[in-house]
Structures are given as structure tokens and as C-alpha cells.
Amino acid sequence: MRLGLTFRAAARTHPGSVRGVNEDAVFVGGATPLWAVADGMGGHEGGEIASGAVVDALASVSSMGASMEPAVWAAVEAANRTLFIRNSNSVPPGQMGCTVALLGVHAARFFCLWAGDSRVYRFRRRALEQLTRDHSYVQELIAAGALSGSEAEGHPQRNIITRAIGIAPEPELESLEGDVRAGDRFMLTTDGVWSLCTNDELAGFIAMENMEQAADQLTALCLERGAPDNVSFVLVHVV
After folding, report:
1. Residues 6 or more apart from 146 whose CB is under 8 A from it?
2. Position 124 in a domain
């Protein structure tokens, strides 16, 4: 039961202006209130395979209600296991993997699972909140007080992530849950989007009523700014 809440979503994924291959993947669950973004790593084909494996695993989740979150955990764990075995069996051992950020809703509660620096934001009462915490070397420095937010923006190691799917026997997922209200809006995004935009700009796109128009305009802005990475995101409106 979802207490009368319904959901609308718009998603985009684009290779960007520099990279020849799109290693990102997005997932929109349709009848299942589940959405995700995944950002592949491991070079040509490797990253694309990793992000695709996660999205394919999520597509197998048909459980609704209270059983959905355990089913999602199991799907991500299965994708992680497949990728880790493939990495272990390659010569030399591979580093094919991906970040993931996903959002699911049951009744009037949401849950987020993530690994890496893909993010989930919530927009409520015209205020934007980053729900996820980046698993990155730079974020660890910030948490330790060794680096400021402004210094992090230009740090030469800002792209080093500390957690990912496929590089360890078990996925190091972080989780969060909270309430969902009619009027809430969410954005799931890879770093190819949030690294190019301010929080105010992201909030402006999330606030737009026309989701498809917002998605097109956000993609265009990223491309206008050079889009050195793949550009992927999902917008979710709760109505």
C-alpha cells in the first residue's frame, strides 16, 4: 500500500561531449516505485558492462511492499558477485565496477542504497537536501577536517571513489530511509551532472513542473559546459 501516492519520472543518459562510450546506465521501474543511476568504471566496455549488470539485476525486482527492499539488496548483491567473479578470473585481475545510487518507495517511506559518488537529492518545501554521502577520497578528507568544500572542487584526486559495485566480494552499500510526502521531488544523478551544476541550479530544474522539459534543459546545460563525463540522471515527482 502506498497511501494514495503516485509517481512520475523522467530520465536521461548521454555520453557527453568528450567520451566516446556511455558507461552510465539509468533505471526507471515503471509500475515498481524504484529508480537508479549507475556510473561505470573500468575503461571501454568494462564500465558499460558493470552499470548494465546492476540495471539488469534491478529489472528483475518485481516485489512490492515491504519485500521490495530485501529484493533490491539481493539484486545488487547478485550483480556485485557476478562482476567480482569476472574481475577475479580475468588476466590480469580486472577492476570493472560501477557506482550506484537507487531510490525505492513503500507506503509513505523511501529507502536509498548507494556506493560511490552517485547521489540522491530530495527537494521539499523549496529546499534541496543531498540525502547520500559521497564515498570518495576527497569526502573522507572533508570529513576529517583536512579539506574544505571549496578546496575539494579543484582537488586533483576528486574522482577517486572508495566504494563501488564489483570490486569486493560483498558490496559496501550505505543505506538511508525516511518519509515520503505528496509534493516531494527527488533527483538521482551521476557525478557527470552534479559536478557541473550548483545546488541552486539543480533545485531549479527539480522544481520545474514539466519534467521532460527540465530533463532536456539540464542535459543541454551539461553539454554546454563541456560535459567531460557521461551525463545521467533521473527526476522523480511524488504526487
Report:
1. none
2. yes
Residue 98's region, left for phi above 0, alpha for psi from -120 to 50, else beta, is beta
Which residues constitute the domain of residue 41?
7-131+164-238
Distance between CA atoms of residues 98 and 163, nearest Å: 9
Mean local confidence (pLDDT), 154-175: 85
CA count, 13 A, side-chain hemisphere, 44 = 2
Confidence band (pLDDT; 50, 70, 90) for 158? low
pLDDT score recorded for residue 2: 44
- The answer to the question of residue 159 being in a domain is no
Amino acid sitting at position 74: A
- Three-class SS of residue 82? helix
Asked whether residue 210 is domain-assigned, the answer is yes
Q: Tell me how far apart the alpha carbons of residues 47 and 98 are, in angstroms, rounded to a whole number.
A: 6
* Mean pLDDT, residues 221-234 taken together: 98
Listed residue (189, 187, 192) closest to 17, CA to CA: 192
Nearest to 136 by CA among 204, 63, 194: 194
Residue 45 vs residue 182, higher pLDDT: 182
Question: What three-state secondary structure class fits 224?
Answer: helix
Mean pLDDT, residues 112-138: 95
Distance CA 187, CA 204 (A): 12
User: What's the structural domain count of the chain?
Assistant: 1
Q: 127-130 and 119-124: which strand pairing?
A: antiparallel
**pLDDT (0 to 100) of residue 65:** 76
Tell me whether residue 1 is in a domain.
Answer: no
